[in-house]
Amino acid sequence: MRWSLLWLAMAVAIEATAFGSRVERNAYATMMYMGTPRDYEFYVATRVMLRSLSKLRVAADLVVIASTDVPLRWVRALEQEDGAKVVRVENLNNPYKNQANFDRRFKLTLNKLYAWSLVDYDRVVMLDSDNLFLRKTDELFQCGQFCAVFINPCIFHTGLFVLQPSMEVFKNMIHELEIGKENPDGADQGFIGGYFPDLLDQPLFHPPVNGTKLKGTFRLPLGYQMDASYYYLRLRWSVPCGPNSVITFPGAPWLKPWYGAEMPLVFIQAVFYLGIVAVTRLARPSLSKLCYRRADKSISFIQTGLKMIAVWSILAAYIFPVFIIPHTVHPLVGWSLYLLGASALSSIAVNAFLLPILPVLIPWLGILGTLLVMACPWYPDGVVRALAVFVYAFCCAPILWVSMVKILSCLQVSLEREAFLPRLGESTPPAGFNKLY
């Protein structure tokens, strides 16, 4: 196993030189792999980060270390449209995947170790895709054999670090993996942090004015990895130590930068839906002013048409929001916006036809229940999850049918009592005439 990985690393180094004559001696690198619920989102995020580096005109190659299962169309887009050099690798086996505190989202993050096999470069800045660059950071290539930022007082962050590629270091890291070196989180953060345990005691990096490359290990100033939460302290980017160059988003998934772009549209839609609820509620006719109507065979066809309009308006209330929710919004925000939109649009039918609220919102409650059933974290596999959703839907079907019957019966009573269709030739009754008290 060990020798196969070493041969693979040598193949990676050879492939990295197969792009023709290389001018740059340094590289900004990131990684891509498949197997998470948000593979496409990280693919888009990687492309955005590469484009931002290109616009800054960095004096370095852009390299993507991509696992062999990354779709070829993504690889072609990275190479042809974003100008990146894609190096295909096999996923490294994670020996920590069965430890108690392991998060399966980070199962393949050890692929980051392949950065040490890019021996055609003098220095490599290894990046996570959730970084935003505010300015060029080419001075980082003057740093030593390993440099990283402490955004935590005791633990440096592996979302951005500088390294000097070395096959010797890479081989030693693979050996440490094989013998099961202690790793507190089972991911790249814990492994690399344990491999460079003395970084906290090293001097702070200051780029030499003559452009020479330093030797050794250094701590990077905090300005190279500004946690996005710092912004909310003063509502501006101002970290006093080091240049304010790179913003990182190490927190919860819904705080990643690619979700923020759609938030203004989400806010507008939420305000729109809340406005619909308020307007339809205020415009609801007063029950004390409704008159009885006798059944009239001449308007039965129109009443049937109104019933169909009411039913289709309820269906549209649950279908329409799906098509206007931003596609890249976080699922938690997206589903919340959908439920708000469905309830707001349903209120139009409720108030226009004086329908009871609960039967109209039974599908809304059913969808919410389905999401909770799907989100349950204790399923052993996807088959059990699918069966649980099927059983839940089977149990909810009778309730949904009863709610539809209730809606139709209430709609019939409402049409018979309401003056929706005044008789032709009849004058409007005077105020206070034939009212319900």
Automatic annotation (TrEMBL):
The chain crosses the membrane at residues 263-283, 304-326, 332-354, 361-380, 386-408. It comes from the Eukaryota. GO terms for molecular function: glycosyltransferase activity. Keywords: Glycosyltransferase, Manganese, Membrane, Signal, Transferase, Transmembrane, Transmembrane helix. InterPro entries: GNT1/Glycosyltrans_8 (IPR050587), Nucleotide-diphossugar_trans (IPR029044). SUPFAM superfamilies: Nucleotide-diphospho-sugar transferases (SSF53448). Residues 1-20 form the signal peptide. PANTHER family: GLYCOGENIN SUBFAMILY MEMBER. This is Glucuronosyltransferase PGSIP8.
